[in-house]
């Protein structure tokens, strides 16, 4: 689970995701293993390191409330 | 016919009408004036200098305070019509100082919402400048200050822009279960209408 996800779930006042989703960190940095519907397990894909900023979006849909 | 120029005009019109400027987080007694300004900014018509003068006139008339005037000037600076992101960031800094001064002089318990507005404006300026990770940082700060559907939607849209679909879906699922109904309904509306959140729409809705 990424730190962003943990932070956002905490900010939104919802329950800890790892305890409910069944996801647990693996020894490999940046990866987790999650139970999926009691059928099997999947490993999350590690995030690419050093994400670069993308190009300016062509259609600004972000909300800029006063 | 210059098809490239025509396409550019169409895209510009689409971009301008897509620029959202809600007033729900502003003080209730100032929303009417801000709605007028927001409508004009979204239309993208007219001289930005005239709009700036109108904002300053509204402040001089006491219809909006200094914090809201700086917010409106920042929203105008970041709008597709002006697209001066550096100016928008400078105005956000001035708005932040004004928010602290207003809180010290008058109190009122609005500081957190006003600081959320500042961080939202910073996030939008970075987002529109193509600095998406910096935008996410500021949108998260906005959410820390004020837990609203608008701030949540901005975070989700930015995560999608960064390719964090799985995390965004997890957050959305948790919100649907845990947040009060009005919060969820407002967020669902944003997802249904905002193309940046389209990846989070349920299959039956798309």
Key descriptive features of the protein:
heterodimer, A: 66 residues, alpha+beta, three-stranded antiparallel beta sheet, 2 helices, 3 strands, extended, B: 206 residues, mainly alpha, Serine Threonine Protein Phosphatase 5, Tetratricopeptide repeat, 10 helices, 72% helix, globular
Q: Kindly name the structural category of chain B.
A: mainly alpha
The beta-strand count of chain A equals 3
Largest β-sheet summary of chain B? none
Count of separate DSSP helical elements of chain A: 2
Mean pLDDT of chain A: 53
Low-pLDDT runs of 5+ residues of chain B are 10-17
Percentage of residues in helical conformation of chain B: over 70%
**Protein chain pair with the most extensive contact, residues per chain:** A-B, 30 and 66 residues
Shape of chain A: extended
Rg of chain B, Å, rounded:
18 Å
Mean pLDDT of chain B: 88
Residue share in helix of chain A = 10-25%
Strand content of chain A: 15-25%
Question: Which consecutive residue ranges of chain A, at least 5 long each, have pLDDT under 50?
Answer: 16-25, 30-60
Helical stretch tally of chain B: 10
Secondary structure layout:
The complex is a heterodimer of chains A (66) and B (206).
Chain A: H1 3-11, H2 17-21, E1 24-25, E2 32-36, E3 40-43
Antiparallel strand pairs in A: 1-2, 2-3
Chain B: H1 3-18, H2 31-43, H3 48-60, H4 66-78, H5 85-106, H6 111-128, H7 132-145, H8 149-161, H9 165-178, H10 181-193
Helix pairs in contact in B: 2-3, 2-4, 3-4, 4-5, 4-6, 5-6, 6-7, 7-8, 8-9, 8-10
């Amino acid at each position: 689970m990424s730190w962003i996800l943990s932070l956002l779930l905490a900010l939104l006042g919802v329950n800890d995701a790892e305890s409910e989703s069944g996801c647990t960190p693996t020894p490999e940095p940046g990866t987790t293993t999650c139970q999926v519907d009691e059928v099997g397990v999947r490993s999350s894909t590690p995030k690419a390191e050093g994400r670069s900023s993308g190009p300016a979006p062509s259609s600004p849909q972000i909300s800029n409330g006063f | 016919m210059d098809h490239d120029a025509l396409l550019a005009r169409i895209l510009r019109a689409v971009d301008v009408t897509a620029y959202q400027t809600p007033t729900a987080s502003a003080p209730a007694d100032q929303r009417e004036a801000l709605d007028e300004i927001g409508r004009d900014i979204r239309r993208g018509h007219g001289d930005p200098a005239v709009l700036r003068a109108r904002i300053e006139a509204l402040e001089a008339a006491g219809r909006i305070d200094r914090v809201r005037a700086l917010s409106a000037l920042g929203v105008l600076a970041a709008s597709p019509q002006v697209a001066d992101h550096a100016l928008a960031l400078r105005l956000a800094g001035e708005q932040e100082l004004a928010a602290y001064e207003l809180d010290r002089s008058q109190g009122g318990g609005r500081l957190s919402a006003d600081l959320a507005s500042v961080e939202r404006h910073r996030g939008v300026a970075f987002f529109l400048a193509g600095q998406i990770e910096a935008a996410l940082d500021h949108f998260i700060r906005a959410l820390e200050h004020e837990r609203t559907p608008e701030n949540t939607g901005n975070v989700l849209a930015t995560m999608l822009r960064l390719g964090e679909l799985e995390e965004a879906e997890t957050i959305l699922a948790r919100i649907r279960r845990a947040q009060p109904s009005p919060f969820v309904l407002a967020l669902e509306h944003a997802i249904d209408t905002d193309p940046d959140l389209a990846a989070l729409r349920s299959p039956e809705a798309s």
